[in-house]
Amino acid sequence: MVTVGLLVTLEAKSGKEDELASFLADALPLAQAEPETTAWFAIKIGASTLGIVDVFPDAAGRRAHLD
Asked: If you ran DSSP here, which 8-state letter would residue 15 be given?
């Protein structure tokens, strides 16, 4: 069960949209290696806006992720 999460939005500089998308794709294994990260998603919100949605069982798990 998850009780807390994060929604982080990122705005790519002009011409850097693909670079940001690749950066997020490369970050997936790091998130998967965190035992308290229940789910992690990279999302495309707009032409140059991307985001990360991740969820955790509790505030301690979120804190471990942020630290």
From this structure: T
Which tokens hold the place of 50? 């991307």
pTM tops 0.70, yes or no: yes
- H-assigned helices in the chain: 17-32, 59-66
Query: What integer pLDDT is reported at residue 58 of this predicted model?
Result: 97
User: Residue 42: in which H helix or E strand, if any?
Assistant: strand 39-44
Q: Give the model's confidence band at 27: pLDDT under 50 very low, under 70 low, under 90 confident, else very high.
A: very high
- Inter-residue contact 54 to 41 (CB < 8 Å): yes
